[in-house]
Design brief:
Layout: H1 61-66, H2 79-95, H3 122-137, E1 161-162, E2 169-170, H4 184-187, E3 221-224, E4 230-232, H5 239-248, E5 255-258, E6 263-266, H6 269-279, H7 321-336, H8 395-403, H9 429-442, H10 455-458, E7 474-480, E8 486-491, E9 497-502, E10 506-511, E11 517-522, E12 527-532, E13 540-545, E14 548-553, H11 559-568, E15 584-589, E16 594-599, E17 605-608, E18 614-618, E19 627-631, E20 636-639, E21 648-653, E22 659-664, E23 667-672, E24 677-683, E25 689-694, E26 700-705, E27 709-714, E28 723-726, E29 732-737, E30 743-748, E31 752-759, E32 769-777, E33 787-792, E34 799-803, E35 807-812
Antiparallel strand pairs: 1-2, 3-4, 5-6, 7-35, 8-9, 9-10, 10-11, 12-13, 13-14, 14-16, 15-16, 17-18, 18-19, 19-20, 21-22, 22-23, 23-24, 25-26, 26-27, 27-28, 29-30, 30-31, 31-32, 33-34, 34-35
């Protein structure tokens, strides 16, 4: 661009022909600064074009402009004004002939603005331009200096643009490159007005080219000027100086730093208003109406004929065959692989080597999420070495803690010391601290993701209840006669008789099939438990009354059986308590013709051995002598040679082996009576055990608790419960297995009895099948108690239940 320089020119006139008084070298710089959202100059347009020289004519700019009509700016200019403008342009072109050697005149039609709609009428203007160019081509041109030369056609063109609102005109004219040293003042048109815009007086703006601005971030310069010299950055103010300057300057909020031009730009009030309206989502101009009424230009009241009577073309409602072929061609190319789509670029995973505890634990990454170690709880006021007096318990409270359960007992008892030196040091304090640090160091802490699993898929596939019949369903018989709650029941080995004990002090024997009460014993005290001898040839009954155990003769059976029972229940001399008989006295009871076993503590339960000669009694308050085993034939009593851990609840003999089960409140201990050693300890995990029952095969145990849970133990599998069933909302009073059918049941104080199907397979690899079958209802509550006992019939799938409402019910299939 040597030989060209920039001149600021403002032409307030709408010129169609080139001015005749232009200099040899003229360059027009037109800058249009548009305000963006940030208030910065959005773009700068610089045009510098060298044009062919031409010989000036006597006509001046004032004559040329005075001899033509300026298009009025009003919006109501009609067709007559446009025709008159066209005629004036043609007269000007005829009155301004171009002569001389190598002179060139080029004018392009301007874009006249339609006064009503803003549309350009290029038809009339192009005609005037073509006439003018035609006369120029017919002039005196010499050599190859024709304006339509193919090599210079683009660079020698000039445009005249008009704005429909401001009326400013930007024209491009040029002379020969020979006189490049003329002043800029001589290149301005004589008829132009002086610009009052401060932007036109600023030196040429910086242009860094089509490169990112970040490339100049660490450089001392920003871009280059037109001569190729570096433009140094301005020194930026210090933050403190800038802040102090902003406090003193009331117009500081209007100033914006222009990074591309390295300068501060101050917005005018009008520009600030535009920015505010844009930020509020409004139109930038006040006169713009976004809700203007719609004007349909193609409808009017007096319309008779439509705009077009042509029929609808077929292409409007028929699918295009060409488009279908084009789509098929593209699909074929995609399938053949000739058209390949760009795959998304995979971002390289970078591991932050220096990420510490300050990194966010929720940040998703390829490695395990960081989870901070749990902090120990801070000590509270009562854990102080010198707590307030109200936190220190009295001696009575400390004694009451010893009687509480281990779970309910407080772990820490506040104690007062005069100083910290008097506090007794914990022996394992250093060891515990070391183990805690070791746990925190070695224990992996991983944030587990929650799995979205359908709850229905977690339910086991159980067989249909129809396939598991028979089992008790409905109440068939009721045994009425007791006046108090029935505390215990027991069935005879043949299943023909049933015995019951009640809180009214009576023991009754019933016939199962007819509900007839065969015999009644008036004991005079609450009967805690009854148990029928398992041998059919020994129809004797053991009952618990307070601290005594009575072995009664029921009078059933043949004469031979009765003689055998009378001999068995005869005690010649009362045996006192000695080393062999600790705490138990065998007495002959003439009133009931029975044997009385007098204990030194209250007896809670009695159970027979399968052979019928041994029976066990449980005294929960007797500590080391809590469980006793009695031999009926020899009239001997011995305590269990095992150390009991906890208060015993009940005891049961194994149905086939010499194994003895003792249930405490927390655990169930299994002992071998022959080897006199502990075989297994079953961890129930229950709050308090209430009852226990052994499967006829002897390898499975069910345990009921006072929290309504029932645990099934597979002794061959583990010492932990195989399955824990939460069925009853109240305490479970008793559980029972059927001798021949795969059934077991539980009864509770909620006046219900649950019947389950429990099948044990001979294959050790197959787990037991437990299916809930039926909930038996019918008893009513009395004094907060419901069903107190339940027993299965030895041969039929029937269930007997004894309730606190003084009724015994038989449920059949």
């Amino acid at each position: 661009m040597s030989g060209c320089h920039f001149v600021n020119i403002q032409l307030p006139l709408f010129v169609k022909s080139p001015p005749s008084s232009c200099s040899r070298e003229t360059s027009l710089r037109s800058k249009h600064a548009m305000l963006g959202d940030s208030g910065k100059p959005a773009c700068i347009l610089v045009l510098a074009l060298p044009l062919k020289p031409y010989v000036p004519t006597p006509v001046t700019v004032e004559d040329a402009t005075s001899s033509r009509d300026i298009p009025p700016r009003e919006t109501d200019m009609g067709l007559a004004a446009r025709k008159k403008n066209k005629m004036n342009v043609e007269n000007d072109s005829e009155r301004m002939p171009v002569t001389g050697k190598g002179n060139v005149a080029e004018v392009q039609s301007d874009e006249a603005v339609h006064p009503s709609g803003g549309e350009s009428h290029s038809g009339s203007d192009s005609e005037s331009d073509s006439d003018y160019l035609g006369s120029s081509e017919e002039g005196d041109f010499e050599g190859n200096q024709s304006p339509v030369d193919s090599g210079a056609e683009d660079s020698y063109s000039s445009d005249y643009e008009s704005d429909d609102k401001t009326g400013n005109v930007s024209g491009l004219t040029s002379d020969d490159q020979g006189n490049a040293d003329e002043n800029e003042s001589s290149e301005q048109p004589q008829g132009g007005e002086e610009s009052d815009s401060s932007e036109d007086e600023v030196a040429p703006r910086n242009t860094i080219g089509n490169v990112p601005l970040e490339w100049y971030k660490d450089e001392e310069h920003i871009g280059y000027d037109i001569t190729g010299k570096k433009l140094k950055k301005k020194e930026r103010q210090d933050k403190l100086d800038a802040f102090l300057a902003s406090v003193d300057d009331s117009k500081n909020w209007r100033k914006i730093y222009d990074e591309y031009n390295d300068e501060e730009v101050e917005l005018t009030k009008q520009e600030a208003k535009l920015v505010k309206r844009l930020l509020k989502g409004k139109a930038p101009h006040l006169d713009f109406d976004p809700y203007a009424p719609y004007v349909d230009w193609f409808k009017w009241d007096d319309a008779i004929h439509p705009l077009s009577n042509a029929p609808e073309p077929k292409r409007r409602f028929t699918p295009s065959k060409w488009e279908a072929k084009k789509v098929a061609k593209l699909v074929r190319a995609i399938r053949e692989g000739r058209i390949k789509f760009d795959k998304p670029k995979e971002e390289q995973q970078v591991y932050d080597l220096w990420a510490g505890e300050s990194s966010s634990p929720t940040k998703k990454s390829g490695h395990l999420a960081y989870i901070p170690a749990p902090k120990p709880k801070l000590p509270v006021l009562e854990e102080s070495y010198n707590p307030p007096p109200e936190y220190i318990p009295t001696q009575e409270e400390i004694n009451s803690y010893q009687l509480m359960n281990e779970e309910d007992r407080p772990m820490f008892i506040p104690t007062r010391y005069s100083s910290m030196r008097n506090i007794p040091a914990y022996d394992n304090a250093v060891k515990d601290a070391f183990e805690r640090c070791l746990d925190l160091y070695l224990c992996p802490r991983v944030r587990k993701k929650r799995l979205n699993i359908d709850p229905e898929s977690l339910k086991p596939k159980l067989p249909s209840r129809r396939d598991l019949k028979p089992y008790p369903v409905t109440c068939y018989l009721e045994y009425k006669g007791h006046k108090g709650s029935v505390t215990s029941i027991s069935t005879e080995a043949s299943g023909q008789w049933i015995a019951s004990g009640s809180s009214d002090g009576t023991v009754r024997v019933w016939e199962v099939s007819t509900c007839r009460c065969l015999r009644i014993w008036e004991i005079g005290a609450v009967v805690q438990h009854v148990a029928w001898n398992p041998l059919p040839e020994l129809p004797i009954l053991a009952i618990v009354v307070g601290a005594d155990v009575l072995i009664l003769n029921t009078g059933l059976g043949s004469e031979g059986d009765q003689k055998k029972v009378e001999e068995l229940l005869h005690v010649g001399v009362a045996t006192s308590s000695d080393e062999k008989n600790p705490g138990v006295i065998w007495l002959q009871d003439d009133k009931y013709k029975a044997i009385k076993l007098q204990h030194f503590k209250t007896v809670s339960s009695v159970e027979w051995h399968r052979k019928g000669d041994y029976l066990s009694t449980v005294m929960p308050a007797a500590e080391s002598k809590a469980v006793m085993i009695h031999q009926l034939s020899k009239k001997l009593t011995q305590r269990v040679p095992f150390k009991l851990h906890g208060l015993p609840v009940t005891s049961v003999f194994h149905p086939t082996r010499s194994i003895f089960f003792i249930a405490t409140k927390k655990n169930v201990r299994v002992y071998d009576l022959l080897k006199q050693k502990l075989v297994k300890k079953l961890e129930t995990g229950l709050r308090e055990v209430s009852s226990i029952a052994i499967h006829p095969a002897g390898d499975n145990v069910i345990v009921g608790s006072k929290e309504g849970k029932l645990s099934w133990f597979d002794m061959d599998l583990s010492s932990q419960p195989f399955q824990t069933l939460t069925c009853h909302p109240k305490d479970i009073t008793n559980v029972a297995f059927h001798r021949s059918y795969p059934l077991f049941a539980s009864c509770s104080d909620d006046c219900t009895a649950y019947v389950f199907h429990g099948k044990v397979y001979s294959d050790l690899n197959q787990n037991p099948l437990i299916v809930p079958l039926e909930i038996l209802r019918g008893h009513s509550s009395s004094n907060g108690r419901g069903v107190l006992d339940c027993k299965f019939h030895p041969r039929q799938p029937w269930l007997f239940t004894a309730g606190a409402d003084s009724l015994i019910k038989l449920y059949c299939h």
